[in-house]
# Entry
Amino acid sequence: MAGQAYDLVRKINRDPTPSMTLQAFPSTLKKARSVLLAAIERVSMWPGRAVSARLPASRPALARGFGLCLAGVAFVWAQPAWAAYPDQPVTLVVPYPPGGPADLIARPLGAGLQKRLGTPVVLEYKPGAGGQIALRYTQRAKNDGYTLVLALAAYAIGPLVSQSAGYDPVKDFQPVSLVAKQPLVLYVGANSRFQSVADLIARAKSQPDRVTVASSGFGNTSHLAIEMFSQAAGIRVMHVPYHGGVQAVAAAMSGDVDAVFAGADGLRYVSTGKLRALAVASDARLSIAPETPTFTDAGVRNMFVTGWYGVLAPRGTPGDRVETLDLVIRQVLSELALSEQLAGYGFKVLHAGPADFQAFIEQELARWSRLIVDRHIVPDQIDIRGPNPAGPGRR
# Structure
């Protein structure tokens, strides 16, 4: 019978659900009390056992002893609620479709978190609206550390260019960790007439608004890269936003658009002969593509655009859970295999904790705000989406 009581206590500790801990707990303890009392009564009647002499002589004494037992059970029962994080699956929301650069980060990061946290990490893809659908979904989630979102640089841009973004990038989320950066590259299709940045600029100057350049969505980093390039080169091009980087890159491959700004992971299509890289928007050439010039090399100054990737949680997530997640993410990023894997796609793995990540986001807001004002970008301009524009740059 004592074994039955022990099993009941173990059941309490194994079952973390609210129905068990809040509703069934009193009745379960009552049952445990009955089992323990019956066990004690049976032992007290064993003949010739020394243990019977040590049992309480009265029911009040027995009750006091049992009270101490219940206190111990209650203490043990309370521990999982405080010490067991995480004790259920963690969801990592991804704001873009599978196959793109966000996916290249999310999959190994999720696998590393699952291994180190000891609980399943589920990737949930919610693409659309420049990442805003995923962000609003996470914003409404319970702030218990079990729902996270992989934020991209567009996180800081969205509210600046969309009145319907629905979130404040400074106040509505808790930064957890900055995990990686990646420069953007200007690509053209393998059969493009443009052999260099100079060729594209010359065409755009002779025929304003005729050269079509794709992005992964209105208000994205690739969109603002187009604006920065136009400003730095003194040209006017037609911006063609798509519903994600995969579709934008595909449009450049097929010739539906003249060029596309996308992450350095697109260099994999250069090696297969589907794209050509005209220039990289960084201060130095990439080790994985040393033949690709920087924009400075190509004669365009002040053209530096880097995408970044980081993990956010809903505002109000407990600080100790944020610290746990940041620590584990830092450990995952320190693994050489992960670093080498991402470097092959042009990512630079790095880490910044919650406070430094928050400061970085505020710097990004200031930087992009200036460009948006300079380029007279109007919030909620038409967003052209879909994989097949009806003609070059047209809908």
